[in-house]
Amino acid sequence: xxxxxxxxxxxxxxxxxxxxxxxxxxxxxxxxxxxxxxxxxxxxxxxxxxxxxxxxxxxxxxxxxxxxxxxxxxxxxxxxxxxxxxxxxxxxxxxxxxxxxxxxxxxxxxxxxxxxxxxxxxxxxxxxxxxxxxxxxxxxxxxxxxxxxxxxxxxxxxxxxxxxxxxxxxxxxxxxxxxxxxxxxxxxxxxxxxxxxxxxxxxxxxxxxxxxxxxxxxxxxxxxxxxxxxxxxxxxxxxxxxxxxxxxxxxxxxxxxxxxxxxxxxxxxxxxxxxxxxxxxxxxxxxxxxxxxxxxxxxxxxxxxxxxxxxxxxxxxxxxxxxxxxxxxxxxxxxxxxxxxxxxxxxxxxxxxxxxxxxxxxxxxxxxxxxxxxx
Amino acid sequence: xxxxxxxxxxxxxxxxxxxxxxxxxxxxxxxxxxxxxxxxxxxxxxxxxxxxxxxxxxxxxxxxxxxxxxxxxxxxxxxxxxxxxxxxxxxxxxxxxxxxxxxxxxxxxxxxxxxxxxxxxxxxxxxxxxxxxxxxxxxxxxxxxxxxxxxxxxxxxxxxxxxxxxxxxxxxxxxxxxxxxxxxxxxxxxxxxxxxxxxxxxxxxxxxxxxxxxxxxxxxxxxxxxxxxxxxxxxxxxxxxxxxxxxxxxxxxxxxxxxxxxxxxxxxxxxxxxxxxxxxxxxxxxxxxxxxxxxxxxxxxxxxxxxxxxxxxxxxxxxxxxxxxxxxxxxxxxxxxxxxxxxxxxxxxxxxxxxxxxxxxxxxxxxxxxxxxxxxxxxxxxxxxxxxxxxxxxxxxxxxxxxxxxxxxxxxxxxxxxxxxxxxxxxxxxxxxxxxxxxxxxxxxxxxxxxxxxxxxxxxxxxxxxxxxxxxxxxxxxxxxxxxxxxxxxxxxxxxxxxxxxxxxxxxxxxxxxxxxxxxxxxxxxxxxxxxx
Lengths: 375, 533
What we know:
The complex is a heterodimer. Chain A is mainly α.
C-alpha cells in the first residue's frame, strides 16, 4: 500500500479564527472567480465577435468586440489582484496541502507567471489595435485566450492535486523535478471543462445585464446583445448540467458520499440548482420580449448567487476530500485581535476609496455627456 | 537563483511603482499650476508607460515571488503567513486600491476634471507607499526579528529594529527609480530640458538620502551580519562596491546629461541609467539576502527551510524519521544522499551551476565528505549546521563525492607544488589558510620539513573533534605536505593579523566544542569570535 505523506501543520497558531479565514476566502474567491470568468469568458466572447465582426454583415459583433477590448486588461488586472487575496487565505488554512501540490507541479506552476504576463500584454495590445480590425490583433487575442486557458488547466491540476495526498509520493518519485500533471485524477478534465464553460456562461449573464444598460442609449444594439447573451447563457448552462454530472460521477465514491451526506452541502447544492434554473429561466424569459424586461437583471443577480453557492460547494468538497487528513476546528488559534480590527477597517475603507474613485469617474462621464448635449 | 531573479526584477519595477506614482502626480500638479501643456502631455504619455510596466510586470512578478517562495521555502513562507497574514491582508487592501487607482489615473486624463484626476493620483501614491510600508515590515523582520523571537507579538515583528531605516532607504530608492524611469518618456522637443532636470532632481534627491539611510540600516543589523561587511566575503564586497558604483554612476549621469546638458539624455544614456538602476537594486537585494545567511528568518529558520529548534532532533534521529518525500527507502544509498541534497541544500546550491557543489567538493571522497559535514557550520562562510545523523551524512557524503571523478595524479617534481595546493584547497582550505588570516597553519608548520608535516596527518582526526580523519591517497598526502611546508616557510612581509571571519558558528545557538581546541595552535581564532562583538 502506498504511504500517504503529508507535511505537518505549521506549529504556529492561526492568527485568527477559522470561520473568519473561511469567510474571507469564500468572499474573495467568489470575487476572483467573477473577475476570472470575465477575463477568460470575456476574452472568448471578444475573440468570437471580433472574428465575426470582420465581415460587414455583423456590425454589432464588431462593436461589441471593440467595447469589450477596452475592458479586458482591467478584468485581468482584477483577476490577479483578487486571486492574490484568495491565495493568501487558502495558504493559511491549507498551506501544507497547497505547497506540496505546487511543488509537485512546480515547473508548470511557475510557468503561470510568465504566461499571465503574455496574456496580459496581449490583452493590452488588442485593446490598442482592436478598433482598426486588421493586422495581427486577432492572432494576439487568440494567443492570450489560449494562454489563459492553459493557465486555467494548470490551476485545476494544482487545486485537484492538493486534495489527493494519496497520489503525492508516487508522483514525486516518478518525477521529482516538478514536471507532473494531475491528469490521472478523473475529476481534472470535467472540472476544467466545467470551469471554462462556466466562464463563458457567467460572462454571457454579465453581457445580458450590460445589454440592458446599453438599451438606454441604443435600443437595437442593446436588444441584440441581451438576446444573444441569453441564448448563449442558456446553452452553456444546459451544458454545465452535463459537465457537472460528469464531475460528480468522477469524484471518488466515498468522497461524493461524504459530501452528499453533509446536510449543509446538500442544502447548498439544492439552492445552487434552484438558483441556476431560476437564472436561466429569468434571463431567457426576460430576453424574449420585444423589449427585454428587468427579469434579465434579476436573472443576472441569480447567476451571481449561483456562483457564490458553487464556490461554497467547492469549499465543502475540499473539506470532504481532506477530511481524513485535517480537522480545521482542531487547529490552534491565537487571534491577533487588534490587527484584525485594523484590517477590517482598512478593507471597508479600501472598498469605499475604490467606490469613491468610480463615483468620480461616473460623475466625470456624466458631466462630459451633459456638456456634449448642451453643445 | 530563481528567487533572486524574480525578486530583483520585481523590486526594480515595484519601487518605481511607488516613486513613479508620486513623481507623476507632482509633475501633473506642476504642469497644471504652470499651465504647461507640454509637461501635461508628458504626464499622459508617462502614465501610459507607467501603467503598462507596473500593472502588468510589476504586479505579476510580485505574485511570482509568492509562487517562488512557496516552492523554494514552503516552511518559511508558512511561518511568515502565520505570523503576518493580517499584515499581508492589509497590504493587499492597499494593493487593490493602488491597482484600481492606477487604471483610473491612466485612463481618465480626458474624462475627469483636473482636481478629480489629481485626487486619483494622490490616492494611488498613498496606497502604493502604504503597501511598501507594510511589506517593509515583513521583509526587515526576516533579518531583524527583534523582540518577536521572545514575544511572538505582531507589532514587535513589524516594527523591528531595521523597519524605519529600511523604509527610508526604500523610499529613497523609489525616488531614484522615479527619476531614472522618468527619462524614458522624455518629450522629443518642447519641455525636454525641463522634464530632464525635473527627473534628475528626483534621482539626485533620492541618492542623497540613500547613503544616510543605509548607514542607519547597517548600524542596526545583527552583529553576525555586520561581520560579513568586513571585506572578507567576496560576494558582499562586490555587492557593496557594485551598489556604490552603480548609484554613483547614475548620479554622475544625472548631473551631466540630466541637469547640465539635457540634450545628451539620449536613449543609450537612458539605457545605461536603467542598467545602473537594475545594478543598484541587484546589489541591494543580494546584500539583503546574503546578510541573513545562514538564516531565512533570523534565529528562527535556516536558509534550507529547517527550523533552528529542530536541528538537534534531526541530528539525533536522522532526516528519514520525519521526511515525507524520499525517493528511496534505502538510507545507505547514493540516491538517498541525492534526495537529502535536494531537501537540505537545494535552496541555495545546485549540483552544478549556481553555487554549484561540484566545484566546492572536487577532490572529496565519501568518507571525508561525511566527516566534514558535521563541521560544516565552522567552515569559512555562512553554512548552517548539518541537520542529520551519521547515516544521513554518509549518504550525502557519497552523493557529494559522486559529483566528480576521483582524483588521479601523476605527480612529478615539476607539478608537486601545484598539486599540493590543489589538495590543500580540497582538504584543508575550507577551514584553514597557511599564511592567511583564517585559522592559519603557519604557526604549527613553520620550519617543518615536508616529511615532518606528513607525519602529522595520521593523527589529525585524534587532535580535535573538529578535525576530520585524514584519508587522502599517499601521493596526494606527499604533495600536500610539500605544499604546506613550502608555504609555511616562505618569508612573510608582515605577520597576518587575525581577522573576524564569518562562519556559520557566528550565528548558531547550538552548543558545540570550540574550534581550534587541540590543534596546538594558539594563533587560530576561535570560531564564534564574532559573537563577542
